[in-house]
Amino acid sequence: MKKPWAGRFKESTASSVEEFTESISFDWRLWPYDIEGSIAHTRMLAHQGILKKSEANEIISGLKEIYKEIQEGRFQWKKELEDVHMNIESALIKKIGSLGGKLHTARSRNDQIALDLRLYLRDVTKGIIKDITRFQKKLLSVAEKEASTIMPGYTHLQRAQPVVLGHHILAYIEMLQRDRERYEDALKRIDTMPLGACALAGTTLPTDRTYLARILKFKRVAENSMDAVSDRDFIMEFLSASAIMMTHLSRMAEELILWATEEFSFIELPDAYTTGSSIMPQKKNPDVLELIRGKTGRVYGSLMSLLTTMKALPLAYNRDMQEDKIPLFDTVDTIKAVLSILIEMFPKIRFNRKVMKETSTEGYTLATDVAEYLVMKGVPFRQAHEITGQIVRYAIERGLALEELSLDELKGFSPLIDSDIRDVLNVENAVKRRRSRGATSPAEIKKQIQRFKRIL
User: Which of 156, 278, 419, 436 is labelled catalytic?
Assistant: First the structure.
């Protein structure tokens, strides 16, 4: 098949090279954006008098027919035509004749692919932002139901202080809010129009890139033609935001996996979102959550792949940049699948409130409350900390919980301790007293929930 650059070459391209260099096997998914960009480009050429209006109308009509053929699955993609651009252009020429060859006036595949990727990623990013918001709303609904459910909070995976489950869930809503904001910020730089930069140096033809940006609904035009075709920062930024979000979702998955173990028994995962064992009949495995944890590595790999590809490329376009698409597409598919399954699954998790509350005071989690009680009696915090540590050691040596110690035993460590210590050694009171901004008291949780209701 004749190549668009055939005039320069004596020999035809080796079939092995066609196989090695093709990208149609993965960039075909850009076809709606390629056609959208081509229609806009045609309109600009007509607007500028570079094409006759009748020519533009025929080209646009042909592109719309190709759009329908692809949409209906009647279009045949050909590897020998390399990529999505040449497949569509070749089909157009076949459909309307040599007039189709005028479509490529004042553009290059370099600025064409940059445009396709930005149009694609603009849509994708908006969709992911919506999915994050949907997940936040699901989590917020659960957090509201569990605003008074007491559980142990952890540091170093050791029981630390009692908290409420709603507070724990709100922590992930906060993480997702930052993720959403990162995508929203990335969208500002994605929303830049590169078409018209041509190969790298622009064109001698009287094009109007501002007009193109307007009809393609871009907020800005890429100002430097060399940067326009060689920039993949917008993809790296998207992958970076995705990698950070997957860190958050992996942490969530890990906690849910731990909570579902017999050792924790904090939750029961829904049967429909778990799997069994081929040999052990009793097993109920958290495979969905484990795969979320595992897929995080794929997204990290995609980011590192593109960073490595771009790190030593001279300006402007290089064919290495063809390797941007597989990591991008894989990340998009992964992110969408992970958010989708979590949106379905999380509201169906059953929380074991009894176990959570029973374990919330184990491990001397009210020790900080005792220290703060002494602070309120006028004891310097460091001294209060030491006294409380002595009380904890005393209780451990006798196999007793703090609340099981008698008042006389407690007074032996400080004469300032009185009968009001019993209110301190009560887990419900301990949680209610944590009223500092953003803390775990049910009253503060309600404020946080209302704040997110306004945001979302």
Answer: 156
Question: Is 156 a catalytic site residue?
Answer: yes
Q: Are 132 and 123 in contact (CB under 8 A)?
A: no
Instruction: Write the CA distances from 132 to 104, 178, 182, 311, 371, integer angstroms.
Output: 39, 10, 12, 31, 40
**Same domain, residue pair 296 and 404:** no
Q: Annotated catalytic residue: which of 25, 61, 277, 340? A: 277
- The set of residues, in sequence order, having a beta carbon less than 8 Å from that of 356 and lying 6+ positions away, is 149, 150, 151, 152, 165, 266
pLDDT digits (tens, 9 = 90+) for 265-322: 999 999 999 999 899 998 999 999 999 999 999 999 999 999 999 999 999 999 999 9
DSSP β-bridge partners for residue 164: 150
Pair 125, 91 in one domain? no
β-bridge mates for residue 153, sequence order = 161
User: pLDDT tens-digit profile of 387-433?
Assistant: 999 999 999 999 999 999 999 999 999 999 999 999 999 999 999 99
pTM attached to this predicted model:
0.94
Q: Do 450 and 382 share a domain, yes or no?
A: yes
